[in-house]
Design goal:
Length: about 170
Amino acid sequence: MGGKRIMVGEFGRPHGVRGLLRLRAFTADPAAITAYGPLSDEAGTRQFRLTLKGPDLVAVEGVSDRDAAQRLTGTKLFVAREALPPTEEEEFYLADLIGLRAVTEAGELLGTVRAVEDHGGGAFLVVEGTSEMLLPFTRQVVPSVDIAAGQLVVVPPAEVLVTPEGKEAAA
């Protein structure tokens, strides 16, 4: 599988004794995960064909018992970027941001987007330049994304100094 791949789900714990697995789908419609054809693991070495058995339950082709299902727990599932539906205007996949140049409103190069991460508090961009910057992915900080031009405009937030209560900030 060549080209950019996007994570669309992850296998959870086994369900029952016949090889079914819980599935965390990261697609807008969780049932759509089966429409993208075979999915692969992170390395791209294994392929999985899924059949939906419930809202968050799947059968995996070739997996017929709980032990085999248990070995797949935690496996992240990827699909080729080309297999996903096209985006609307001002819409894009977060994976499309990786590799874009991050520039200021004045056109000054800050670096390149190395990763887009989300640990529950909202997505942020990891921009690699002279130093690494972590920038919240909000319209205020990233007012413009131009995938075709290969760049996004960044308005870095001002630093915030928090002083302990009752203490004066050093000048």
